[in-house]
Amino acid sequence: xxGYQLLRFGKHLTSTGFASRRIPLCVYHSQNFSxxxxxxxxxxxxxxxxxxxxxxxxxxxxxxxxxxxxxTPETLEVENEQIYGPVVESQTEVQxxxxxxxxxxxxxxxxxxxxxxxxxxxxxxxISLERGQGRSSVPSVTRILQKTLSPEQLFYLERWKKxxxxxxxxxxxxxxxxxxxxxxxxxxxAVEAILTAEKAKDTDPSGAFxxxxxxxxxDSISQILEDVSEVRAIESTVQHGAMNYLxxxxxxxxxxxxxxxxEWKTSERPKPYLSNTYDNPLxxxxxxxxxxxxxxxxxxxxxxxxxxxxxxxxxxxxxxxxSKQLLEFWQKWLFRLEDFVEQK
Length: 344
Description:
This protein is an alpha+beta fold. The chain folds into two domains: 2-66, no CATH class; 108-343, Lambda Exonuclease, Chain A. 45% of the residues lie in helices and 13% in strands. The protein has helices at residues 2-16, 25-30, 53-66, 73-84, 93-98, 141-147, 151-200, 215-225, 280-292, 323-343, and strands at residues 228-240, 245-255, 258-267, 304-310, 317-321. Strand 1 and strand 2 (245-255) form a beta hairpin. The longest helix is centred in the middle third of the chain and has 50 residues, at 151-200. It starts with a helix and ends with a helix.
């Protein structure tokens, strides 16, 4: 029965002029139809049988052929511009930086010094930050990055803050922020104790972290620390005199044989991708550029490392910045520094 209706439908389409090609034979074969299986039934009159198909077919063809829309994409664009004005597309931070020439230009590497310093070296350099007269006016890397956040970054930061205050309240959010700061400080102290214990040979690294608050963080980076050697600087101030900024670098050491500026970070959420670390790569590049131009250091660094540790002890995520990639973030840092200077 179904095959018979398909044949009638195919003939009808051909006779009315709406379709000129026959239905493929594969339709019948796929249904295993045979002419001997068709059940004969009285032919029913179709309501379309009384329609003058020839007349209406020619009418439809003439209407379709002559109908031309007066609106085209070009005319719609002109009309929209007249009513609403020209379209203004907002630029991303990357597009804004790419569309302008930097005013502040300074190389990442100081060509007057050797790229790396080989040979014997003493204990890790640790220069404390002086807040006395003459240095108080020098802005820090952290301050510069905070003051030059993009509108998008500010939006998400403010939204996160409001959500946390809604959940914890004003006092609860304040305690939460203080807890994060305390954990970060304890974690950095623990890492420093472990790395310097290797030199001193008089401290047990397994008990260096002291506070149970950071045991999970230390466990998280335990495998990473095995690949860290030749610590050159730890919690040490670096300053770029020509570009007038400073910062405190977490660590300068070799990671798997490559000399790097290392930043230790803690996080409650996984950060498996470099993009998850937000402005941390710019921070590393800024520290490297300052160190390379600081007379307190007699070597050069052109690689970076960001290590994200987790409180539950899960393996830390490691993000390496090669010399080419670090140079790209150095250029982005120069734009942020330029924005900061223009705000003053």
